[in-house]
Amino acid sequence: MAGKPPTEDPVQDAPRVEQPHHAAAGLPAVGHSLRIAQQQMGVRRTALTLLRVNQKNGFDCPGCAWPEPGKRHTAEFCENGAKAVAEEATLRRVTPSFFAEHPVADLATRSGYWLGQQGRLTHPMYLPEGASAYEPVTWERAFGIIAEELDALTSPDEAVFYTSGRTSNEAAFLYQLFAREFGTNNLPDCSNMCHESSGSALTETIGVGKGSVSLEDLHRSDLIIVAGQNPGTNHPRMLSALEEAKNNGAKIISINPLPEAGLERFKNPQTPKGLAKGAALTDLFLQIRLGGDQALFRLLNKLILRTEGAVDEEFIREHTHGYEEFATAAAEADWDATLAATGLDRSAIEEALRMVLASRRTVVCWAMGLTQHKHSVPTIREVVNFLLLRGNIGRPGAGVCPVRGHSNVQGDRTMGVFERPAPAFLDALEKEFAFTAPREHGYDVVRAIRALRDGDAKVFFAMGGNFVSASPDTDVTEAAMRRAGLTVHVSTKLNRSHAVTGARALILPTLGRTERDLQSGGPQFVTVEDSMGMVHASRGRLEPAGPELLSEPAIVARLAQRVLGDSTSTPWQEFEKDYGTIRDRIARVIPGFEDFNERVSRPEGFALPHAPRDERRFPTATGKANFTAAPVEHPELPEGRLLLQTLRSHDQYNTTIYGLDDRYRGIKNGRRVVLVNADDARGLGLSDGQYVDLVSEWKDGVERRAPGFRLVHYPTARGCAAAYYPETNVLVPLDATADTSNTPASKSVVVRLEPAPAPA
Ligand SMILES: Nc1nc2c(c(=O)[nH]1)N[C@H]1C(S)=C(S)[C@@H](COP(=O)(O)OP(=O)(O)OC[C@H]3O[C@@H](n4cnc5c(=O)[nH]c(N)nc54)[C@H](O)[C@@H]3O)O[C@H]1N2
Ligand SMILES: Nc1nc2c(c(=O)[nH]1)N[C@H]1C(S)=C(S)[C@@H](COP(=O)(O)OP(=O)(O)OC[C@H]3O[C@@H](n4cnc5c(=O)[nH]c(N)nc54)[C@H](O)[C@@H]3O)O[C@H]1N2
Ligand SMILES: [Mo]
């Protein structure tokens, strides 16, 4: 039997603190995930469902975007993938009677955890203007309402079409096509808050905004640097790849302000040895200050340049541009300034240099710790400089590895979900579909919030996600959303974005990855692209959560017909009937997808081309890989303040909260905690267990406050603090974004801690 959802809320947030762990995964992890899964879907469904995850004939895990190995285990999922599956395959339901019992004003008082725990959405629901509760609505009427609002706009650019990265390639392709036939490039997506900095930096330097390594490359490398990433929680299957690399002789350096358990030691539940003792993963831990990475890599680059025979001269001559200018800038890197910016010891950096010089094949992996700072783009460019110096791009066992988040976030971009589409992409789209595509760039996430806030955008449509909770500056974002005329969410589960609405609102329930997708043309499958550019099919098997649910492609196809009417010559009905016809079009529009239907029928899928990786060709403006020489920056920290990073606990998937524990960090039963170095706490006159308000300080002078956090002494780098997202999004100013990529700088928020009363 599956357990009942909680009826009370707020769930008592009463954190208990234990010692942090020094190893990840292993049997406790498997037991923990099965418990969560069984509460949601009972024993039998748990077993049936989990065995299908990431199998060649099964569905793609709706968790992270880590690739599947060629040789798969029966249980090719991880603890957190199991939680993601359970969250979707749950037997709990949110039906129209639930909405009658819970008016919007009531939903708005509930925690994200409570909302998510209520179960799957089953019916299209409508909140009329001035009404207090959502009421059931037919799909026909729902599409009619959206068409009315879109028709009434002065310009198509007053509509915003958001995507979260779980959307399949097929749905994403139709969605962007619909938005562009409607007349706008306003296609912000979760990438804008995530790996946009990686895309910006990589496109400029190597010509392709994606990672250049395969799983095989990782297994074969000599040195893997993991910077700003917590794979033990967020990409647990990556630990198996790191373990395999180590077995083949690789060394691992991890660069992080926090000692993350998964990187220290990994107990692989799929090998007998792993179960018993586990493998130590990290050979060198560089406990860096938040935002110190650019300075660190710049100094390493200087030291490499100074070492006789260390640079790959032939590669640099043949394949790169801007070397001289970069070498001049790097020569200025200074030990004292770097030690101050990074908080590291000289000896640790010297040890890192020895390991770098000993490696012929180096990979750098990174995630949000590098992408969510003001200077993220120059930081990632410096990582590219570092790899270029020793010819580590386009060589087996070496390269750049931005580890993506959402399971199809990379594919959505490939399909054209992007507010700044390349002209060549629009040309191909126009040719295929006989319409004139808008050329002006659209809004990204931050610009979309400003447009809603200022009344320049009036309709907000979301294909998945939880825009209100995921976005920065919660109060500003919520006020912006409430100004919209209509907000629409295509969703699987209830979340806060359904409770903070425009004048009118719609919730459109959709199928998840795990569910059977039957259309009039027969059973359908969809495709996804993983973090390493592998494309493969995903087939759900479970009975859909309700008979009313429509698939995402069906929703877009019907919406497009209703909104575009006679003005479209695109065969939307065909697309809905048979997704193979969508793939035929993708094959003609997007390079690398030739013979898409045929190639994706192979169980292991196929790899998209990547010019730098495959042929050391760099499709940049200069035709070469570009060295860049930005000035070194790092966050300034005023006296008596801390730099706060907002990050994920072990029991959450972005804004979806699975539970209240962060097991590896030793936090139980609570999320309102702030991790502070004991010496910093003492310096501020604060102590472990005390409650504080977090107050963010930004140059606009506005006070942003997150009240009531339990202070936890934690071995983080000096001057740095950490607390969970999305509770702390209220502290991230809308205008505090990364240069160039415009990604919210949610890993470097200057805060002061004010003593607060303990909760009653
Ligand atoms: N279970 C689970 N899996 C997930 C997700 C989830 O929420 N739950 N989310 C998915 C998504 S969308 C994404 S984008 C990824 C996110 O994956 P991660 O990027 O691993 O997620 P975060 O929790 O934000 O962790 C950031 C890490 O970077 C470190 N860090 C922070 N600032 C710095 C810095 O300045 N320098 C360095 N060197 N390190 C720093 C932090 O200490 C932390 O270890 O995970 C994906 N997978
Ligand atoms: N402060 C701070 N803010 C951050 C971050 C941070 O580290 N710190 N990280 C940022 C990052 S990396 C990201 S990616 C964003 C995430 O931003 P989003 O992608 O917008 O947020 P999620 O929490 O992943 O979205 C969860 C919702 O997606 C819906 N959903 C789940 N599966 C499906 C599906 O198959 N189809 C549809 N249609 N809906 C589905 C459910 O209704 C669920 O409630 O947040 C960003 N915000
Ligand atoms: Mo992400």
Automatic annotation (TrEMBL):
CDD domains: MopB_CT_ydeP (cd02787), MopB_ydeP (cd02767). It holds the Pfam family Molydop_binding. Its cofactor is Mo-bis(molybdopterin guanine dinucleotide); [4Fe-4S] cluster. Residues 120-492 form the Molybdopterin oxidoreductase domain. Keywords: 4Fe-4S, Iron, Iron-sulfur, Metal-binding, Molybdenum, Oxidoreductase. The keyword Zinc-finger does not apply. One of its GO terms (molecular function) is formate dehydrogenase (NAD+) activity. InterPro entries: Asp_de-COase-like_dom_sf (IPR009010), MopB_CT_YdeP (IPR037951), MoPterin_dinucl-bd_dom (IPR006657), Mopterin_OxRdtase (IPR006656), Mopterin_OxRdtse_a_bac (IPR010046), Prok_molybdopt-oxidoreductase (IPR050123), YdeP_MopB (IPR041953). GO terms for cellular component: membrane. Residues 642-749 form the Molybdopterin dinucleotide-binding domain. Belongs to the prokaryotic molybdopterin-containing oxidoreductase family. This is FdhF/YdeP family oxidoreductase. It comes from Streptomyces tsukubensis. The lineage of its organism: Bacteria, Bacillati, Actinomycetota, Actinomycetes, Kitasatosporales.
